[in-house]
Amino acid sequence: MFYREAGDFKTSYRQDSQTFPIRFDRWRFYAVLALAFGVIPFVINDYWANSVFVPFLIYAIAAIGLNILTGYAGQVSLGTGGFMAVGAYACYKLMTSFPEVSILIHVLLAGGVTAAVGVLFGLPSLRIKGFYLAVATLAAQFFLVWLFNKVPWFYNFSASGQITAPDRTVLGYFVTGAQTSATAKYLVCLVFLVLVALIARNLTRGTVGRKWMAIRDMDIAAEIIGVNPLTTKLTAFAVSSFFIGIAGALFFAVYLGAAEVGEAFGIQKSFLILFMVIIGGLGSIFGSFAGAAFLVLLPVLLKNLLVGTLGWPTDLAAHIELMIVGGLIVVFLIAEPHGLAQLWRLAKEKLRLWPFPH
Amino acid sequence: MPEQLLYAMEVTLNGLMAGVMYSLVALGFVLIFKASGIFNYAQGVLALFAALTLVGLQNGQIPFAHLINAALGTNLHSFGWKLPVLVAIALTALVMVGLAILIEKLVLKHLVNQAPIILFMATIGLAYFLEGLGDVMWGADIKKLDVGLPQGISETVESVTDSIFGYGFFIDNLDIVATVVAVLLVASLTIFSQYSKQGRALRAVADDHQAALSVGISLRFIWVLVWSIAGFVALVAGIMWGTKSGVQFSLSLIALKALPVLMLGGFTSIPGAIVGGLIIGVGEKLFEFSVGPMIGGATENWFAYMLALIFLVFRPQGLFGEKIIERV
């Protein structure tokens, strides 16, 4: 009825190539933005911010980053946790060295530092492919975590080896530290997520994105038609690590407040974000959101159900959660290898024809 | 002989022994990769699961006791008997075969012809599932595994080296047993794959799936077979590692250690898994011994990966892997 291209006349190239060509989609997008910026900040409380919204927003940024590398450019990475740690520690060093500069700039700079590290670890991808590369990125994961553990300069020689975010404000409101309100945490992460999603969406639609996809589909063929594998793979690593670095910086500074590298950015984090990307859908920005939402909500729901309602011990609930997450991944891969994003696409196809399918 | 050199020799020997332990896990990877092209991330968790099951059976634990207690409010713990070691090992081997059949029926069958990366992800999912299942079935506390393997310092080696060099080497008995077992395992696997009918079928499938199908080899049977063998190798690895450091979650992380071993040796080569394991074992022990103290220690966490990474840049298919030929 409402969901179709017909009757939505485009009169300029600009309109013709906009992100949401269908009017209904456009309004839905504005409605979601209005809800996210206009309603949720006023009703959010600490529980919802800390257990659902803030982790969702941050993981969505990381998932978009990994999706660019794995989903669009086809380079499987198991080093996401390590790169998030780079973002976190870069942000920490910047925050403590230059207290007068805004935290927002620090977060962006932390992304930049992570991009540089990402390019460095991306260099072997020119020689190593597929599984071999996936395992090679583990080198980044373990080496970086070890580095941040062993070199005291990174954690400012603190006795505990932890990094703790100092209080910083944006426009007079606290965004890091103990006095931060749920609304401030949520809004900072939301602004970054919206920007990251817009940039990612437009990059993947343009020349860069097409080059990434050409390399993903078959790198030799892509090289023959004139795609430079060196720059293409390295830009994928750079952009992806930039986003992941931002996610890491926010995860540490805004969400956790204090972090210990092995615990917060270990190999489990790498797998978690990889699962988000797979369950959401490889090569889809919407999929990154869907996957992050799914894997953030699932443990919360399970915990409420098993521990809250049934009264089972927490460790048992954690083990059952492992089983369910593992089982779901297998089920998803069998039933829908392209993830939640594919279900969404199918639903939209159906909607276009509804209510006259023939 | 100078003392430093003697220390280095001891470290090298210990590294070789540690390498054998890595090879035991890597072996399972190679078997499955050769026969089905699946990069089985769950191999380490299989070892953990096998070790958990072995301990559970040996002590007569009731499976899922924790879950039943939580759901029904009962207070069950064990059947109150202790099984002899050999019976428990045989039963665990049976469980692993059953698991192989289930994995083939429920997971692999549905994923034929999918991209390798999808299969890899599926085994990660499987790893999570098995880890959760192992914990729910047998409980997550650290368990002691004792199947009567000798442990502690080997006095024979110490006295022999003492009489030759004037300095006794410290070598764990368990490592010596592991080396013997690994040699036996590789020998029997080689004999099996070279001289038995099933072994030939296995090699045929490894060579070319479609050609193997066309001469009447059942792919599904081969997959069950290969996963059973991998399960058995996992059981052996689980016994060795479990005796060494207790049966606990970190056991599943040895799978990650086996990955650089595989990259060095090449994914498709059984000798590669052994040689790769030895190189990694010796390399990381020597590095920790010589450079480690200067840069803060605990280099074993990442050295293997870095070594493999640098090595791969020069030889992308590993030491013994088949040359990668790509066509457009």
TrEMBL record, chain A:
UniProt keyword Transmembrane helix present: yes
Major localization class: membrane
Membrane topology: Multi-pass membrane protein
Taxonomy, superkingdom: Bacteria
Any single Gene Ontology cellular-component annotation: plasma membrane
Keywords on record: Cell membrane, Membrane, Transmembrane, Transmembrane helix
Cross-referenced Pfam families: BPD_transp_2
GO MF term set: branched-chain amino acid transmembrane transporter activity
CDD domains the UniProt entry points to: TM_PBP1_LivM_like
Transmembrane segments: 27-44, 50-69, 101-123, 130-148, 183-200, 236-259, 271-296, 316-335
Subcellular location: Cell membrane
Keyword Chaperone attached: no
Protein name listed in UniProt: Branched-chain amino acid ABC transporter permease
From TrEMBL, chain B:
Ranges that cross the membrane: 12-33, 45-65, 85-103, 110-130, 176-196, 217-241, 261-282, 294-314
Molecular-function annotations in GO: transmembrane transporter activity
Locations listed in the record: Cell membrane
Pfam families (alphabetical): BPD_transp_2 (PF02653)
Record-level GO BP terms: amino acid transport
Keywords, alphabetical: Amino-acid transport, Cell membrane, Membrane, Transmembrane, Transmembrane helix, Transport
Predominant location: membrane
UniProt superkingdom: Bacteria
InterPro entries in UniProt: ABC_transp_permease, BCAA_transport_permease
Membrane topology: Multi-pass membrane protein
Cellular component terms per the entry's GO annotation: plasma membrane
The keyword Mitochondrion appears for this protein: no
Family: Belongs to the binding-protein-dependent transport system permease family. LivHM subfamily.
PANTHER family: ABC TRANSPORTER PERMEASE PROTEIN, BRANCHED-CHAIN AMINO ACID TRANSPORT SYSTEM PERMEASE PROTEIN LIVH
UniProt-recorded name of the protein: Branched-chain amino acid ABC transporter permease
The species this protein was found in: Phaeovulum veldkampii DSM 11550
